[in-house]
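A protein record pairs a chain with a discrete description of its three-dimensional fold. The following entry can be read in just this way:
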Amino acid sequence: MNDEVRLTRVLVIEDQPKIAQWLATFLRQAEFEVLTASDGMTGLRLARTEAPDVVILDLMLPDVDGLEVCRTLRRESDVFILMLTARAEETDRLIGLESGADDYIVKPFSPREVVARIRALLRRASGALVNNSDAHPPPPKLLQIGDLTLDLTRRMCTLNEQTITLTPTEFSLLSTLMRQPGVPFTRERLIGEALGYDYAGYERTIDVHVRNLRRKIEPDPQTPRYVLTVFGIGYRFAEK
């Protein structure tokens, strides 16, 4: 039937069959449609032909490095990318975020955590994180400060009338800050309101997303005009 609701489509790119099968089974039980690929090239092909909503990407793949797969996906689409990594070093995980991943989970992991992260990503895309909170009034459809404009209805960002391509995570982070210019946000608060899950030691995640965002919207990322650092606290958006 034409009015059948399409399930959220998740592409799992993981070269270890047991992990891929275990994760796919749990995701299907959570009512996601699941596609799997055991190498990077197959994953890229499926991403291009099947248009997944979320890609779960292992960092270590047998053919194409997971970071390169991530960079390619990010160049081609704004699909959510949740990176799986067995590397314990924080710098390795942050490199994944700098390559365009929206979030990461370290192996070994709970499949329930994966499902929770996916649902948080999807809420982020729908704009439901802050918009529906009792603590905030309904936001305007258009946020504009200086030469930067954010269209919340069309989910578009423009700077000096030029379209800026943001990932869903960057858009959510920017809209959260722009709704309250001048108000300092702790990293913990930004994780809860912009990223959509409880604080659990992911402060550096915010720093990387802010750095990626600044590269796109700031004339000089070294001396930000819009997203300002509040030392000892976090970040705030410049006032009008």
Summary: The radius of gyration is 18 Å. The chain has a mean pLDDT of 85. The chain has two domains: 9-126, 128-237. Residues 128-237 form a domain with the Arc Repressor Mutant, subunit A fold (CATH 1.10.10.10).
